[in-house]
Amino acid sequence: MNKESALKTRVSLFVLMLMVCMTSAVLAAEQARTVEDCGAIPWGEPISAVEEITYSHTADGVKYYRVNKVEPCGVFRIQGANVTYGFLEGRLYTVLVEIAKAQDVKQVVATLMESYGLPDHKKVDGWDEYRWETDDLRVKLKSQFVTDRIKIGMYYKPLAPKK
C-alpha cells in the first residue's frame, strides 16, 4: 500500500467515524426532544412538580393518580388507554396502562420492542406476558387474546423497594 492510498484510507475512516458520531448525537437530541414535546413526566419527578392530578388509590405504599394535564405519549397514546401514575415516597415510580379493547396487540409489542429490544415471553394464567429490562426501567406487558385486554406496567428501578 502506497502513502497516497494509506492517506485516503485514514481520511475515509475519519469521515466515517465523524458521521457515526453526528448520527448518534442527532438521534439522542431527537429522543430528548420527543420526550419534551409530548410533555412526559420524567422518572423520579416529585409529585409537587406535577400539575392537575387526581388521587385514585394507594397500594403497597404507592399512591396512584390520574394526571389530567399530561398528554399521553407513544404507546400510552392508544385510544381507550387508561393511564395511571404511581408515586413512591413522593416521586414518580410507575406508570400503569390498561387497554380494554386493543385493536392490535402486535403493534403495541412492536412499539415497545423499538424502544427496549426483544422481550422475555411466557404464558401465565391465560395471559401472554412480555418483559423488558434496562438499567433504569422494568417493563411488563400482559395481553389476553380472548378479551383483547392489555396491561402495561413500567417501573423506575432506582426507586424500587429493596427486597
In short:
By secondary structure, the protein is an alpha+beta fold. The protein has helices at residues 3-38, 105-116, and strands spanning 53-59, 62-67, 81-88, 91-99, 120-124, 127-133, 137-144, 149-156.
What does this structure look like?
With 163 residues, the protein is of the alpha+beta class. Helices cover 29% and strands 36% of the residues. The chain has two helices and eight strands. It has an eight-stranded antiparallel sheet with strand order 1-2-3-4-8-7-6-5, with helices on one face. The longest helix has 36 residues, at 3-38. It is globular. Mean pLDDT is 76; it is low at 11-37.
Topology:
Blueprint: H1 3-38, E1 53-59, E2 62-67, E3 81-88, E4 91-99, H2 105-116, E5 120-124, E6 127-133, E7 137-144, E8 149-156
Antiparallel strand pairs: 1-2, 2-3, 3-4, 4-8, 5-6, 6-7, 7-8
Q: How many strand elements?
A: 8
As a percent range, the share of strand residues is: 35-45%
Overall geometry comes to globular
* Structural classification: alpha+beta
CA distance, first residue to last residue: 61 Å
Strand order of the largest sheet: 1-2-3-4-8-7-6-5
pLDDT under 50 segments (min length 5)?
Answer: 11-37
Largest sheet: 8 strands, antiparallel
- Run of helices and strands: HEEEEHEEEE
Helix fraction? 25-40%
Helical region count? 2
Radius of gyration: 21 Å
Multimer state: single chain
Give the rounded overall mean pLDDT. Answer: 76
